[in-house]
Every structure is written in C-alpha cells, then in structure tokens.
Design brief:
With about 270 residues, this protein is of the alpha/beta class. The chain has two domains: about 200 residues, 2-enoyl-CoA Hydratase, Chain A, domain 1; about 50 residues, Lyase 2-enoyl-coa Hydratase, Chain  A, domain 2 (Orthogonal Bundle). Helix content is about 50%, strand content about 15%. Helix 1 packs parallel to helix 3, helix 5 packs across helix 6 and helix 9 packs antiparallel against helix 10.
Length: about 270
C-alpha cells in the first residue's frame, strides 16, 4: 500500500487528480497544531514524496476547518515535558520540516487561517504559498522564551529581508495576510472559499509540465540562491545539461510542432 493510500490519525490525504496530492493537517479542535503524532505522519508523507512518489508531481499543504492553517507545536502536549523528551520530540519536528523543505516535488501552501509559530514556519518551508485574505501570521516564539526552531530564523529573512525579519521575530507581533503578501511570504491572496481550488489549480498546472524540468528548475533556484551569481549560473547550466537528450524534451518539441498537448513521462 502506498503511503498516500493509508489512513492517518492527524492528516487527511486526497488525490484530486492522479498527479496532485492534497495534504490536510487534521486536528481542527487543536487549531491543527502539530503534536508528535502529526509530525511523524507529515514526515512519513513527505519522505514518501521524495522516495516513492507514486506518480505525484505536485503537493498542496493546508489545514482542516476555517480557523487555522496550523497553530504550531502543541504546547499542551509539551506541558511538563522533561528536557530529554522535549529534545527528542523536537528532533521529529526538525525532520518533518526538513522533509517538506527538501521535497523534490513542488509543495504549495494553502494558508486557510492562522499560521502561528511553527505553522508559519511550515508555510515558509513550502516552495511558495497562497493565503486566504483573512489569514493571520506570527512567529511568536520569543514571547514564550524560545526562538523558531524549524527554519524560521533562516527562511524568513530570505523572504522578507534581514531588518523586517528581525522586527517580526523580536516583536512576536501577528501580521495580516495583506502584509504577508506585500512582504513576499505568500504569493497570492484568495477568498477563503476559493483558496484551495486556486492552489490546486496551480498544482495541476505544475503537474502538467515536464517533471524532470520542474525538478531541475527547483534545484537551479535553490542551489543558485545559496551561492554567488557566477556559481549560480554554473548550477543553472548543469541543470540544463541534465535535461538535454531526455525523452521529455523530445516529446515537448514534438508536441509544440504538432500543435498538441505534450504527454510527459519523466524520462
């Protein structure tokens, strides 16, 4: 059985079409906060997308209900937790976030409500995100004696710049969807009722493109942004060269000349 056909306790998975996976964080009574069980399940799903994708070419991550995308780590579960247990749990959270961040298949966030603390970090771990126009965001960790621990201090300044990131992190002040869009945290604002359909439509458009090309484009951007321009251009050419001679390129050129939709096989 595929990891995408299993039943989960804290997630709900759907395949709106064979190439698109919808991953729903499903703890609405806890504002979709991730506990150890949810984090373990997210880790399982995103590791499967990396190693056994079962035809999935794009994924959408969202939350159940209309209150929250994800309220971050479940602090009720952490109350009274000793240091050793806390650190062991956090390692699972780190692995979960890294699995999303490193997923070779595009992951789009659909932020349907509050994205606070680790929930905001999960949105940042996606390749890009859309948000409901009434969503709210915050990185609140400094208000309880912590700092973000699953990527927030590194991903946020890469989106919004150093000065803005410090303001958000140090003040722990919530901010609006409009601010998130203006600062580059999300790409598009949607009416709540159209958020998931619009996000799925973008995922479907990505899934219709050549999967090898999509993967190499992601690699070129991600690795290039970690280096200087000259090295980034070298990475781009390496990614380009890996695609020349593939069956998908031949199919894409043939389809263009024959005025038809290409059928890409990822070869």
């Amino acid at each position: 059985m595929s990891a995408f056909d299993r039943r989960y306790d804290a997630l709900r998975l759907e395949r709106p079409q064979p190439e698109v996976l919808l991953v729903v964080m499903n703890r609405p009574t806890a504002r979709n906060a991730f506990n150890t069980a949810m984090a373990t399940e997210l880790l399982t799903v995103f590791q499967a997308l990396a190693h056994e994708p079962d035809g999935v070419r794009a994924a959408v991550l969202t939350g159940e209900g209309d209150r929250a995308f994800c309220a971050g780590a479940d602090l009720k579960e952490r109350r009274g937790m000793n240091e050793a247990a806390w650190r062991a749990q956090h390692k699972i959270f780190e692995d979960m976030a890294r699995a999303i961040l490193d997923c070779p298949i595009p992951v789009i966030g659909a932020v349907n409500g509050a994205a606070f603390g680790g929930g905001c970090e999960l949105a940042l771990a996606c390749d890009f995100a859309y948000a409901a126009d009434d969503a709210r965001f915050a990185l609140t960790e400094t208000s309880i004696g912590l700092i973000p621990g699953i990527g927030g201090t590194q991903l946020l300044p890469r989106r919004v710049g150093t000065a803005r990131a410090k303001e958000i992190l140090l003040s722990a002040r919530p901010f609006s969807a409009e601010e998130a869009a203006a600062w580059g945290i999300v790409n598009r604002l949607c009416a709540r009722e159209t958020l998931v359909p619009e996000t799925l439509a973008t995922a479907a458009r990505i899934a219709a493109n050549a999967p090898l090309a999509v993967a190499q484009a992601m690699r070129a951007v991600d690795q290039g942004m970690e280096s200087g321009l000259a090295q980034g251009l070298a990475v781009e050419l390496d990614c380009y060269d890996k695609l020349v001679g593939t069956e998908d390129v031949a199919e894409g050129v043939a389809a263009f000349n024959e005025k038809r939709q290409p059928v890409f096989k990822g070869k």
